[in-house]
Amino acid sequence: MQQPARSAADNHDVIEVRGARENNLTGVSVDIPKRRLTVFTGVSGSGKSSLVFGTIAAESRRLINETYSAFLQSFMPNLSRPDVDSLRNLTPAIVVDQERMGANSRSTVGTATDAYAMLRIVFSRLGTPHVGGAGAFSFNLAEGMCPACEGLGRVSDLDVHAMVDVERSLNDGAILVPNFAVDTWYWQTIVGSGLFDPDLKLQDFTPQQWQDFLHKPATKIKVGSNNLTYEGLAVKVRRLYLAKDRESMQPHIRAFVDRAVTFTTCADCNGARLNAAALSSRIAGRNIADCSAMQISDLAEFVRGIDDPSVAPLVANLRETLESLVEIGLGYLSLDRESATLSGGEAQRVKMVRHLGSSLSDITYVFDEPTVGLHPHDIARMNGLLLRLRDKGNTVLVVEHKPETIAIADYVVDLGP
Fold first, then answer.
1. Which of 8, 153, 195, 282 would disulfide-bridge 273, Cβ 3.0–4.6 Å?
2. Residue 177: which of 120, 140, 227, 232 has the closest Cα?
3. 192: part of which helix (H) or strand (E)?
């Protein structure tokens, strides 16, 4: 049988790096095979990270950004070209580092890995009573979230005396909230509303003025020639500050929130984030909040017991995701664990499982010491996941010094001092 002619596409099976001089690299040139696992080793300061992250991954990201319109690029970081003579045959690169995951309080281990999305579909099809589609089990959608806490699982209470000094007037700086000092834009909106005498002490406000000052909903007003929106101080503080996760706040905002706000578990949903309808639907006696609160190792066992042909492929995918989390040493977590509370190592492994479940292939995945802090038994599991990523047709680049990971590499690039 005649062999097919070699395609021109076969000439692009390596990532070609020529003359890399980023940071402490000195004209490094190397060919890195695609769809293989390559480990980069070397002493500290040898240039491993400069080559992998500062050159290959950085240029891939820059080139992808350039495919967007000029309008969209104006909202993106301005990335400069790495100091390298040429880079050829790059594929889209995804960096899986040990940076902690975003500080969004609505992001959990379940949402970050898509395990919760799959679990929602299972409950929408098998849960009794039937309460609706997958959206009915989402704490991020109005149809599923608890109306009292808006899907956060906790409610906040503001200490008015930490926000204002009632013995002062607005002109004397009665508002103690950051960014509301005299003559700031927010202060001018309140004073310009015409609802209050700026020279009157807050303790002398009428009950209606006090209500408007703190709790008046968003109302259109005109200040001079400007059309503005006035809203009560407590309403604005909740919108500006409490809607954000604490870890993402600037230090002085965080200090104010810690001083002025008390968070308590929502009494309506008892911290489950979901409304009563979603919590009423059960599979084998458990609702979706019960499942999300279980250790992932226990949840994987529970999911194995779901034997319904109508959801068999979905349950298989869910089970694979959960078992991957267990294999990588994260079986002690639960799906309702907030992403912001994960350590750097935990976050990296959660990201890895998310990518294992992706349908994308021919991607370059870049890892920064994925085995750091792992028990030797867990290192073997991590290595298995790296190989699975490679076997899906991806290029896997790993900066690592553990001999166990170096041993499984298809290729090793050792950089000297």
1. 153
2. 232
3. helix 185-192
Residue 292 to residue 150: CA distance in whole angstroms? 18
**Over the stretch 229-285, which tens digit does the pLDDT of each residue have?**
889 999 998 888 876 666 677 888 888 888 888 888 999 999 999 999 999 999 999
pTM listed for this prediction? 0.73
The token pair that represents 185 in the structure block:
């834009």
Residues in the chain, how many? 417
CA distance linking residue 37 with residue 132, whole number of Å: 44
Shared domain check, 286 and 260: no
Rounded Cα gap, residues 329 and 373, in angstroms: 11
CA 340 to chain centre: 8
Tokens of 94: 């995804």
- How many domains does the structure of the chain reveal? 3
Which residues are paired to 399 by β-bridges?
Answer: 40, 368
Give bridge partners of residue 227 from the DSSP assignment.
222
Query: Do 160 and 237 share a structural domain?
Result: yes
With respect to residue 336, please indicate whether it lies within any of the assigned structural domains: no
Is residue 304 one of the residues assigned to a domain?
yes
Which domain range does residue 87 map to?
Answer: 8-100+343-414
Residue the block writes with tokens 């589609």: 133
Pair 173, 195 in one domain: yes
For residue 407 the two structure tokens come to 């041993």
Task: Look at residue 335 and tell me if it is in a domain.
Answer: no
